[in-house]
Amino acid sequence: MSRVGKKPIPIPQGVEIVVKGREVEVTGVKGSLRRTFHPTMEISIEDKQVFVRRPSDSKLHKSLHGVTRTQIANMVLGVVEGFQKVLEIEGVGYRAQKDEKGVNFQLGFSHLIKFSPPEGIELEVESPNKVVVKGINKDVVGEVAAKIRSFRKPNPYTGKGIRYAGEWIRRKAGKTGVGLK
Q1: Fewer Cβ within 10 Å of end Cβ, the chain: N or C?
Q2: Residue 119 has what DSSP assignment?
């Protein structure tokens, strides 16, 4: 059996979980999340814990077992604490500025890049070189952070661009000019 899938998910104080067939709705302090899961996964609530069970040991059911349990656990964590990704902007003249609709990025292009976050996502500009993406849905927070990073990926030669906080960029050596005469 899946070690991850077997673990029960404890339901914290103030969180309400409703299971209606394939659909699970989690409501907490920060908001509410709803997700539909594969019809063969059996989701039940017993003694303030959520259990996910699979009907057989087929390859499909094994792969869905741990994923389903992890997604429900992320929903519970999201409505209690929320998720965030921190992006750092590196480069001369590269900056982010908060706007009433979203964030404007200056990334060395001839134009501003205006980005409006989807519903449920909050963007904070802590400094001109630091943007924080916050939300209760882990998948959407990751997608928005990846979208912002794609505006100007880190250059392996100079290190300029948008990177995740703590991300290590493998630097390449430039031309040395050794073979020139």
Answers
A1: C
A2: T
The two beta strands, 121-127 and 42-46, are unpaired
3-class secondary-structure state, position 123: strand
16: number of Cβ within 10 Å = 11
Would you call 20 helix, strand, or coil by DSSP?
A: strand
Q: Are strands 83-90 and 49-53 parallel, antiparallel or unpaired?
A: unpaired
Note the maximum CA span of the chain.
Answer: 79
For domain 3-80, give the CATH number: 3.90.930.12
- Rounded Cα–Cα distance for residues 115 and 102 (Å): 6
- Cα separation, 14 vs 30, in Å, equals 11
pTM: 0.87
- The CATH architecture of the domain made up of 83-164 is Alpha-Beta Complex (3.90)
pLDDT at 1: 47
Positions in the chain short of pLDDT 70: 1-2, 177-181
